[in-house]
Amino acid sequence: MIVLRTPNGFSVRLHPRPLAVGTGCALLALVVGVLSVGGGDYPIAPAEVLRTLAGGGTPAQDFIVLELRLPRLVTGLLVGAALALAGAVFQSLVRNPLGSPDMLGFTQGAAVGALLVVVAGGSTLALSAGALAGGLATGGLVYLIAWRRGVEGQRLILVGIGTAAILTGVNGYLLTRAQLTDASRAMLWLTGSLDGRGWTHAVPLLAALAVLVPLVLLAFGPALRMIEMGDDAASALGIRVERVRLMLLAAAVLLVSLACAAAGPVSFVALTAPQLAKRLTRAPGPNLLPALSMGAVLLVTADWAAQRLFTGHQLPVGVVTGAIGGAYLVWLLATSRRAVRL
Questions:
Q1: What are the φ/ψ torsions at residue 103 (nearest 5 degrees)?
Q2: How far is the CA of 334 from the CAs of 87, 104, 327, 331, in angstroms?
Q3: Are 142 and 104 in contact (CB under 8 A)?
Q4: Structural domain total, the chain
Q5: 0.85 surpassed by pTM
Q6: d(CA 314, CA 196)
Q7: Can you list the residues of the chain whose pLDDT is less than 70?
């Protein structure tokens, strides 16, 4: 462990292995990103991509890289990071590896908000706003229903699963009420896709992450580590458990809602990335920074694969993450049962 101290007495503890995992995932995400930006119908060599990013490309390369492909990559990086960070927070708060927004109903709530806009004939911008509002409203509803002189992790999971089931039925009904063209557009969004993403999708998410990531990592990260040991232990250490839990839940729900607004409800990234990061770091605690980096590399790698698995046809990125996450969930349930944890 490395301890860094500032002149005003503030100290930061750095664990080498989690730091190495987080840095390695971030570098891998950048490498995959360069390859992804350079691929496509107009291939560009990695060296040319880097030269274009540095301002030395031709006009054609500037247009293709900076206007067409880079916004998609940046959106994918930010969405993956936001979902993974939110998943790590949820799993730590409920002390359960299945505690993710996919299981707790928050992504389904964002989908309800988006589908209401689709049925009303709203624009793409309104669809993103509807997804944000739906996710936040679902987060507040789940918290209020789960509240019993505090929010306990097991109760939050059960309420979230029930809410997710109800909202899934609502989503199916809303699809039947939409026009055929609107329903097709909604189905692509519900799968989770980065097609056609521009700077209008990336910039708001980047601004939100610039505020929420330091808030979660620095302001509430140490308290979250204490809460993982149990409410009684955290309270004995001076942590205001319910206040910290509410703030972290609000931040995580906002991260999920913003990610869904930008790319749709991309499945299983929030479930898989924190657990993969924890297995690589072999360290206790929420492992927030490694999870964030793992989510970014998972999503951009899945998007890179989705564009190249079938020649002449691109899959939505949610199809790839769903296949990977579904297989991981089966493996997690099987190993958890053998360990007598479920």
A1: -85, -30
A2: 20, 21, 11, 5
A3: yes
A4: 1
A5: yes
A6: 12
A7: 1-14, 312, 336-342
